[in-house]
Amino acid sequence: MKRILILTAGFGEGHNTAARNIQEAIEHLESDEALVDRIDLFDSCYGKFSDLLRQGYLTAINRVPLIWRGIYSIFDRTTFIEDVLVAFAKMKQALDWLLRETQPDVVISTYPFYNFLIEEIFKEGKEKNFVQVTVITDSITVNSFWYRSWSDYYVVPNADTASILKSVGIDECRILEFGFPVQLEFLERAKQGVELDAIQRPKILYIINSGRKKAAKIIDELIQRKHWKATIVVGKDEKLFYNISDHVKGFEERIEVLGWTDKIPELLLNHHVVISKAGGATVQEAIAACCPMIIPQVVPGQEEGNYELLRRYGVACFAEKPSDIGSALEYLFENEGEKWKQLKNNLKKISKPDSSIRIARFVLEQSLLETTPSRIFPSFANKLTELNFSLVKSTSSQPLLCDFHIHSTYSDGRLTISEIVDFYGQRGFDCICLTDHLVDRKRLIGKFCELTGLVLTPTKVAEYFETIEKEKKRAWKKYGMILFCGIEFNKDGYSPKTSAHLLGIDLKNPIDPCLSLKEIIAEIHKQKALAVASHPHVFQSVWGPNTLFLWENQQEYIPLLDAWEVANRNDLFSPVGLKKLPFIANSDFHKPKHIYSWKTILYCGKDPEEIKECIRSNRNVAITLYRDHKFGVILQKNIAELEIA
């Protein structure tokens, strides 16, 4: 088994995007032969402090870019990073242990800080027993932060960036011009040879990131051109989503507003132009999609290089004022899109849609090389062998650690479905269920919630089921973990006693949330899935709207429901236990810290049908208050030694 460790950080989406796409490509090529762990040690080691650093970074680049320029310059021209390494002793200790425990063949860094820690760990002459690869996510204006510490290889997005590394003395043989790692969808489209139709009715994609004060005026420019269609992506900002949706009322046929989406590749491939700031991931994805850009803002520092790349090859326009954006678009589309075609042809010359696959192949080749005569670290082979999961389901009874109430970014969760699979898989869970919110649109509160972007919308339900179906195979192959598709049906009224939340566990097909509760339960059972009352009693540990309808009408619903949540996150609902109702316990997971909460333990065969039958019969069911260190069962070591719990 080839072991690959990917180290990333959340300071700018480019680092995480690169890490995710490399992992996807490696697992696409060798899903059975490669075990990939993707870890953010900033988040794992420092938690809330890491969140503060991340928020400070976003505030600096969006609100005080000149201050950020100064900070960027300090990183580039001084030894500030080297001088503050002592403050990151906890992370160094964690990384040292991680390298010993996982014994990776290749370590990939998409954030350069890790290279300084690795250099510090091995400074006393110890030999590294892995190949070290750094994936540089910036173009042209490459901060020396990226190359001041050692890496065996540097993957760069383009020839211009390769020239920068050569100019500072890095050997050409260590510079790999593979491109920025983009999603595999770009490669699939390139193989099919499918291109966007010639311009008749222009389609514009507007991704709102920073510079939100201009958003309304930019949208007005799009509305004014009646022959244009536009898609506006606002992300997870619910207030902004609501404001923009209100702003485009009456123009919904031409202007579509999306909240958070993981379909950016598809959107770029199906629009003629994208309006967005010059962020590393967005720029490289637009290049891969051959989608010309309008740049309304360039953040000082790394984004200056991204924009210079676009300007140098003639594939983008800079238009700071909203009126200039409208004029620039008209210029691109006039004369049957003559200028647009020119930009698109220029993009084809620098597009690298196969970048992730090329990186993955190189990494897999390196993992076969013997980097040292013998491994210098203590061997953990026996321990890790015990964790190799069989691809055949086990039907003999065994304890199974389960969580059946988890939310992803499809509703109001913080992690994507892929990230949730890795998060739970690395902690040794046996069975989990994704249960994103789906509201009753016939209810006023349901209509309002749908506008927030924090629940599944009807247009996203099919995509949600497809994504989970894809992740089911990866969850089992990589972690031996069963993944169920579920829904949390929200029937919210004006009071706790008129509100109910219902979990559908192991759904095969979508169910109309506007049906009555009894009809939904019947549809759940038609699919041989479980119907479970979600947080049916009064919350004690957290503030939030109580959903008491099912409890208040328990005599009516006890015969219909398969189980009731006796515990939800940190709340233990004693009345459910006293009634001797069939029970399970769940985390109601929305963000990583929610993992430390009540969970279900089943004693049955590791098989979907046996798990559901165990819950229905409610025999051999127990609950536990889950506690574990950050890295979980696959990466276990003595917690006291690590001191990072």
TrEMBL record:
Compartments, as annotated in UniProt: Membrane
UniProt key word Ubl conjugation: no
Highest taxon of source: Bacteria
GO process terms (BP): glycolipid biosynthetic process
Entries under Pfam families matching the protein: Glyco_tran_28_C, MGDG_synth, PHP
One GO molecular-function entry: hexosyltransferase activity
Record Gene3D superfamilies: Glycogen Phosphorylase B, Metal-dependent hydrolases
Keyword vocabulary terms for this entry: Glycosyltransferase, Transferase
Domain Polymerase/histidinol phosphatase N-terminal: 402-493
Keyword Hydrolase: no
CDD domains: PHP_HisPPase_Thermotoga_like
GO cellular component, one term: membrane
PANTHER family reported in the protein's UniProt record: MONOGALACTOSYLDIACYLGLYCEROL SYNTHASE (PTHR43025), MONOGALACTOSYLDIACYLGLYCEROL SYNTHASE 1, CHLOROPLASTIC (PTHR43025:SF3)
Family that this chain belongs to: Belongs to the glycosyltransferase 28 family.
Name of this chain's protein: UDP-N-acetylglucosamine:LPS N-acetylglucosamine transferase fused to PHP family phosphoesterase
Source organism per UniProt: Methylacidiphilum infernorum (isolate V4)
Lineage: Bacteria, Pseudomonadati, Verrucomicrobiota, Methylacidiphilae, Methylacidiphilales
